[in-house]
Amino acid sequence: MQSVVPDSMEPVLTYFDATYVTGTYRAIRRVTTAQTPRRLHFRCPPLFPIQTWNVFNASATLNNQACTNNLCESWWNNGFSQLVGHDHPSVWLLIDTMRKDAVMDMTDIECDGRGQPPRKRVRKATRALQLSLQRICMARCDNQKTVAETLSAAGHTIRFA
Asked: Which of 29, 55, 75, 99 could form a disulfide with 67, with the two C-beta atoms 3.0–4.6 Å apart?
């Protein structure tokens, strides 16, 4: 079964393929023995190799590990917003809040060093989504689903979550 990519999506597909999957080709001009220039094409590896971004083979999904730092960013942004207390703070309030944040971080690091790691709060919906994705990946690992079925199930899970 061959999929059809709309013309408007072709640049996105080309970029994704060159950056993440196959890489690009680079032409190098060489002079041959007959003094005629000749172009040689060398394959350049992708900017981000598959081992870097593919979390399925690394079993991050299967082992319930974080794949990105989005969770850390959201925690910090939410916590900092609560520390500031309102939108558009003055420069002085911002500096004071940054100092408080640094002190809180140092306290967390100290507690972690004593064997008291900070509690991780995860929403019920996030936990349910992760569990669904984990089941989908397990079904693929056990050859219960094809690649197409796995991608479709993951797409529907993420879209409607």
From this structure: 55
Any residues with CB less than 8 A from the CB of 158 and at least 6 apart, and which? 129, 133
Residue 136: count other Cβ atoms within 10 Å of its Cβ: 21
Q: What is the CA radius of gyration of the chain?
A: 24
Rounded to two decimals, what is the model's pTM? Answer: 0.41
CA dist 34 and 90 (Å) reads: 72
Report whether 25 contacts 44 (CB < 8 A). yes
Q: Is residue 119 within 8 Å of residue 108, measured between CB atoms?
A: no
pLDDT of 42 reads: 80
Amino acid identity, position 21: V
Residue 34 DSSP one-character state: T
